[in-house]
Amino acid sequence: MDSSEHDERRTAIIHAVWQVIAQRGMGAVSIRNVAAAAGASVGRVQYWFPSKDELLRASLEAMLSNAARLHADAAGGVDDREALWQLVGHPIPRAETARAGVSVFHQYVAAAFNHPGLARMLARAKEGEEDETARLLGGLAPGLDDPRAAARSLMATADGLSMRVLIGGLTAAEAERTLRAEMDRFVS
Hints:
By secondary structure, this protein is mainly α.
């Protein structure tokens, strides 16, 4: 089997994990359920991922890597203000497909309360996001007293607004307007 075939099979299984989470919740993730969603045998899933823990870690790692790649693509060739918006605004689900992805992400966050490995992965990702947000804020608003505190404020606002959109308390447009107003407090 060549490398691309290996990657395709592994990727199909990871996508099946996300599908199971999106449709049935994190508690439904099992090797058997993922195999069914991937159209693969249990043995094939276990070949790539010997345990449920491995499935969860690999699928979260893939989600975080994809998010970083999407941000890099979106921020390429734009000014720092737009790069900041792309970074802090990404949690807000703007389309139905994004809504499913953000929902899956939040289920990983909830699972991390009882899964230290997932918690460490998520903490590292948020630290990286905070570092980049603070760096961008420092460049855009050089007089800002504490770019890191401002970064945390923007990230927390975006995360909270994202949850409000997911549960139906706000539209994506309302959430975006609120987040842009918060961003404008730091960057005029």
